[in-house]
Structure formats: structure tokens, C-alpha cells
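Entry 14. Ran structure prediction on the chain below.
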Amino acid sequence: MAKSRVAILRTQPATVLEDYHRLMNLAGYQEVVDRSADTGLKVNISWHFFYPGASTVPWQLDGVIRAMLEDGYSKDLIHACHNRTVVIDAHLGERENKQLDVVSAHGIRNVHLYEGEEWIDVREAVGDLTKKFLCLNEVYPKGFSIPKRFIGENIIHLPTVKTHVFTTTTGAMKNAFGGLLNERRHWTHPVIHETLVDLLMIQKKIHRGIFAVMDGTFAGDGPGPRCMIPHAKNVILASADQVAIDAVAAKLMGMDPLRDCKFIRLAHDLALGCGDVRDIEIVGDQEAANENWHFDGPFKKMTFASKNQHRIYWGPLKKPVEWSLKTWLAPWAYVASVAYHDMFWYPRFAKELMAPVLESPWGRLFANWGKVPVNERGFPEVGEPNPELITLGAKHFAEGMRLIGMAVAESPELRARKRRKDVRQAGSL
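Output, C-alpha cells:
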């Protein structure tokens, strides 16, 4: 049996597009991404505001699209793919993180899975595979839906290297979370590791090909995926094995994947991929793969919000509070999350923590995206730092208030009540 393969390269703005092309071919993407099928580029938006390390960066998305077009993939069979959550505005996120600029520049389709897309029951999509689920049958005894368009499509995940307060690290496997579960995803938080394994089983059943391209030009340490300390690390990774690429990223951050990341260990034990870095074939830059960044991880300096999330899902608040998150009362948690992260933490801490990496070549490239020259290799000039990149004050406050309203209006609980009301009204006509 062939070893799982993970490609890793060091990169810089001047060569980043060429490096992404080389990286993907080192990892053998053309062997798994069927050029005759539609391919969804699953964009990661962990925060609608720009925050280094949190979300897919524009050169990552741009590099993947350019590589595919250069290798003969049809532009008509490539689309960006976004999911929605009640605390993240995907439309704001794709603008603030400059992903929409890349999509528009290449003229590819831009799919928002929660807007006009058909969703079907998972049992119809995967049949008896549901009998192998570790937890989703118990979390959703009535079943759940997945996007119909995913069946038979290739998927290329575009995560970043970062830590996570629920899963220790987050990468390729976690990137499927928003796209495959239609509503009430927070119900899975107490069993989040098992959930990611079940979702990987589903992906292997429904997708024509699965691939991941992970950006570590920015990397995030701390209580991610939002309130992190960002670092410029200058590496990129790719693999057809979702477990293996997450394991290598975890090792880079200074962790033991099988010991510290339960979802990696569970997937490895079920032979869904390789989580043992000793058995993974590293191609590209071996020296980069051997680095240890000695990240503190997500639990050493947790935020007020993350501490209380842990108390609710795994601690003393589970019994008195968690039940409310499965009722019409759940929007209180969405409002609390947006208010804390967008209205308190970001204005107070983001500018100071972001400042060092915004001075880096990657920070300057982001600030000047679309304004600096580009060639087939990358970006020979990155421009000057932009101190106005972070917008605070009255404009940010107004945006925060809108996002709080969105968290309530878009909550699955409120939407379900509205659907029931519409059905009753229709029945009375």
C-alpha cells in the first residue's frame, strides 16, 4: 500500500504562485482531482473580518486556480464554495479577506451553499454508511441534510495552519464542517472530534476526489480560530490525505498529532488516512517539514468566551445551560459570541496583535492586493504597509450591530419557527 504523501514548500510573495503550482503537483493532485467533474474550492472563513491566519488568503485561492487552469482544467468546472454560520457573515468575509477579488478576476462561479442550493437527506446520499457513524446518528436522530451538488464533485479544501479551542488544531478535516452540516452544527460540539471523522467518511463516499491545500504563510497560535496570535511562517502544504496533512500541520505547530488531536487519532485508527507522521511520505522541503514552531496551543491563554464554551460543552455549565442551545433560546449564544468577538475582542486586541505580521511581506501583499504587479511566478513587489487595513471606530461598531442582528435573524431556530408559521398559514388558506 502506497504511503500517504504530504507536500510542503517554503515560499515568498515573489514566487508564491509558482510555488503553489509546484506544491499541488508534488502532492499528486491531478491523480485525484478528476478534470471531467466539477471542482469546488472550499474556502475557509473563520472570521468575516481580516485576521492573519484565520481564513483562506487571496494568494492561496489565486495560486490554486492558476495551477488548475495551467494544468488544463476547465474554468467552467471550477467554483469557489462557501458555507454560512450564524456568527460569520460569509459575504462580508469574502470581501474583507479579498477572496471575492480573486473569484471575480478569474471569472469562476461563486457558490454560497445556503442560497438556492438543494440539500438532501444524508441517508439518501450515503445509504448504509450511516450505520458506521461514530456520533451523528445520536446527535441528529431525525437525520440531517448535505448539499446535493457535492455528490460526484471534487472538493479542494483551502484551510490555514492554526489552532482551535474545540479541536486543538483545525485544518483540512475541520474545513468540511460548515459545508456538510446544514443547520444546528453547534449540537455536535460536545462530540466534535467524532463528528469530523463521520464527515470524512461522508466525503470519501460522495466526492469524486478530495484534496487539501493549506496555507501557512500566516499561522495562528492560541484560542483560535479567531482570537489568535498570528505569525508569518512562509510555508504551504498539500495532500490528498486529509488526515495526513492535518497531522503534519499539527507537528509543525509543536504537537503530537496522535496524542494531542483526538480527531486525527480516531481517523487514523479507522484507516481513513494516516495520522502517524513517521509513516507519511514528505515531499518538497524536508527541512521545513522538520521545523517545530513550539506553539502554545489553544488552551494556555484562553479567552473569556472560549473558557465559557468549554464550561458549557464539557464542564460544570453543561447540565444547567447546554439544553438551552437545543431550543428556541439558542440565539442568546450567537448574540453573545458576536458581541464578544466582534464588538469587544477585535477592537481591543486585534490591531496590536496583527501589527507585527502586517509589516511582513505577506501583510503588505494583503494590504496592496490588486494594486501590485503580478507575473507567472508571483508578486515581485508587495508595496507598503497600510495602517488603515483595520477599520475600527463608528464604522466597526455599526457593522458589529448589524452582525448581532444577523446572528438572530439567520439563526436556525428562528428560521425553523418561521417555516412552521408559513406552513400553518398555507394550511389555513
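Residues 132 and 198 are 8 Å apart (CA to CA). Will compare against last week's run tomorrow.
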